[in-house]
Amino acid sequence: MALPGSVSTCLSPPVHYMICKLGFEKKDIYDINNIVSENGEVCWQAVTEHLHYLESDQSVDYIKSVQSLGPVCESVNLHFKSLTKDQFVVQYAVWFHWTNYTELFLEVFDVLQYAQATEVVLGLMKLTSCLERALGDVYLLIGKDCPFLLRDLLASEQLAVVFGQDVMDVLRVFIGSPYGLNLRNVLWHGFTSPQEIPAKYCAMLLFLTAGLGQLLQTYLLKTKYILVHRPYVTFISLEELVAFPDLNHETLCVAEELVQVSNFIFKSMVPFWMAALTAFKQSRYADCVILLLPQLEAGLRLLFTTTNKCPNRLLTAEMLKKHLDNEEINQLPSVLEEPAMEFLWDFLNHQEGPRIRDHLSHGEINLKTFPRELANQIVAFAITLLCRFSDEDTVAFKQLFMEIKRSSKKKAVQEHVIIKPLMTCASCYRSQFHPISRLKKQVLECMKSIHLWPELPTVSEEHVQSVKGLEGNTETSSLFLKMAEILSQVQQYLPQNCCSPDDPINTIVTERLLVKLCDKHVCTLYSPRPVLEVLVVLRKICTQCHQVSEQVIASIELRYKQWMKKTLRSRQRHNYLRMLNSIKFLSPVLRLILLLITLEVINVHLVCKKTPSDYQQYLKFLKSVLQYTENLVTYTSPEKNKWDETEELTNKALIKIRNFSDRKLTLIQSAT
Q1: Cα separation of 51 and 62, whole Å?
Q2: Staple partner for 292: which of 48, 276, 278, 459, CB 3.0–4.6 Å?
Q3: Where do the DUF4209 domain residues begin and end (predicted)?
């Protein structure tokens, strides 16, 4: 698909004027000695006196304030340029300690000496995210539940108490308010090209951060409070995030060529893409992703407006929504296709996913230890978009692939030998972090736990049968009969020839069967609220089942050791043997519940076809199953050990499940 690349700016005219022109209209020159002392102490009055307020409601007049602060920013920028690195460190370094990342601010000073546009933007993005995180730490000195949005944080009473309201108003002129320069948002959402951000605003925010450090020190000395920094977010289970192969030098070189010919990129944004790829090559993985994420958003915005024929939305589009403002269907998902949409939701939106942009833009990640694995996934995915949305009829694109054909000395294909593995991985991607995907993972993890039971050391069966009341127990036999009836009701939804009606559940509901069922693809995009509500309950049920399994394993191992050492009292021995008898039916019960959960997940979208009355009945039924599993956790805990009650509890639960299934109110029954 060919996309228009002639747009000169992604800033609306008012925002472009605010950022690129307004702060340059006044030509006043201010003596830096009136703004900062020789030892680097910020004179806040010399800054706050440039604030203007509306007469109507005394809120900040952002236009006049930006206009008035423009020359101050220029003076600060020139001041920093006049300092050597050593002078800057002596005067200012100590005032950045409150941010918990002093070296970042020293890096920004270095960037300002050369004012290379792309590096200035990168420095400003890192500065604003780190500043936001530090301000959140200050907020928590006297407040609870730090606001998620920067604008709410800056408008909070708590920060006004620490720094003063006029100081916070100055900050809001630069970041946090959509009516001001709003530098943080326009940068992190990919609206600006490198040349549109004046370096003097980066210098001013560096200066203000030092000034905030001075004010904070005064406040801490006065109150005796101690500033505590929240721990960084860490990415665990990185193997779950790996969807693409490791990028090598050759692939990155091809990517650099694609950047020049792809219609996915605004031409004014090319420097950002090249800088991102360079950062990856230099192992600066956080820098790479910080540069690339806003550009992915900008490219998707361009694709969104082209696909939906709404060029007026280029400056504001929210690309991943299901519907447009006029309630028409958003066509972007159909163009990107489901795997790409699932990747975007996984890495950016799903609560249990890495949520890379949120964590980076809010300063929640240690930039020094950002994992290569994560950066590799974002870069690889970006490369596939560059390739997919390049116009193959352009001369430049044809020349690129002719060069690749000659260099590879292999038969060229449309997606050629270097990019094809990435394209294949992108087309096969399945969500890992949607609640449906997480539930499937839970089911399999629980099954692995239950699968361990037969391997656990136990006393002989003769000892178990010696307990009075357990020999030929008709209640236990009744449980197996009920389970067989339930299984027969769902057998038609299982793979053909996987079992016969006479097979015991433990040989039918195996890890292999659940893996096969969980491998069935279920659409995860735009799951409606009823689906999500059902998934919440199913996940809780699965969690309780896993807890039961882990408790049983721990109890069996402990009691066996005590049995062998002959340290169990008579009552404990009796209870241990009853437990061994109970797990004969608990294992198939848990397996059956996991099977039913899996079948419900596969058909979960059918919940939307239920009438409101049937849906409420269904939800109530699921919650009753949840109640059963919660009680099971209690009864099988080391503190309770209520094995006789467990049997009675299970009997009632199986009757309820069988009867409900008989009425065909479950999702799988609804599918017929």
Answers
A1: 8
A2: 276
A3: 131-211
